[in-house]
Amino acid sequence: MIGLRRHPAWHQLNRLADGELDADSRARVMAHVVSCSKCPQSLSFVRRLGEAGRDMKHPSPPKNLLAEVLQHRSEGDRVILPAASPSSRRKRRLLPAAAAAAIIVGLGVASLTLTPEVGAGASELKFFPPQPVPGERIRVEYRPGVELTGETALRLRLRLRQSDDEPPRGVLGTLDELVLEPDGDGRFVGNYQLPPDFAYAAFAVENLAGDRLDDRQGHFWSVRAHT
Predict the structure, then answer these.
(1) Residue 142, exposed/middle/buried by CB under 10 A (0-12, 13-18, 19+)?
(2) CA pair distance 160, 177, nearest whole angstrom
(3) pLDDT in tens, 129-170
(4) Which residue pairs from 86-94 have beta carbons closer than 8 angstroms and sit at least 24 positions apart in sequence?
(5) C-alpha angle 11/208/39, rounded to 5°?
């Protein structure tokens, strides 16, 4: 009798990538990964998704900082420094803050010009609404590039994160998936219910066989919660 070898579940690969398996479980999963033609790619995908969401652990800048900096710029100020003449030591301490303010201005201006869609070569992935509130149901539309053309359906892979800490694995900080169906207009669409404490999600699209992946050239698509 020929036995069927089962691949590790996605939550097992997720815990392996995050270093959360005990020694015996890790050895058992790794023994399969090194002998499998598909699972190394899946494990690499899980790790890249994890890296894409780790920046959410850093606290956000004050909400009014961007508005204040933009106001200074509209009044003709191009360098954000104190009006008084501080000591040279004080100036040196303020240089990192000024640089951070300049970066925030750049990000703020970019956010005014970017659309809610990002291309991956000839492909694009859109979310409606582009900045959903936690717990909202979103619509996903994907127009494939050359690598995923001709499929009857596609799978959306996503990893959800919380902004400040690692929540229970069954709620956030893990992988989920959604099958996208063709809409007859060259796109693949689906709807996804976000969890109530959603803050950030990273996305990639693959064929149902799992051997072809569009991950935006390793950068992934992402959505942040509107708060």
Answers:
(1) buried
(2) 11
(3) 999 999 999 999 999 988 888 899 999 999 888 765 454 544
(4) none
(5) 45
From the candidate CATH numbers 3.30.460, 1.10.3470, 2.40.160, 2.60.40, the one assigned to the domain spanning 116-224: 2.60.40
pTM: 0.50
Contact (Cβ atoms closer than 8 angstroms) between residue 101 and residue 82: no
Residue type (1 letter), 180 = L
CA gap 179, 157 in Å, rounded: 9
Q: What would the two tokens of residue 96 be?
A: 């990192």
Q: What is the pLDDT of residues 73-124, one digit of tens each?
A: 666 655 444 444 445 445 445 455 555 544 444 444 433 333 344 444 479 9
The domains of the chain are located at 65-113, 116-224
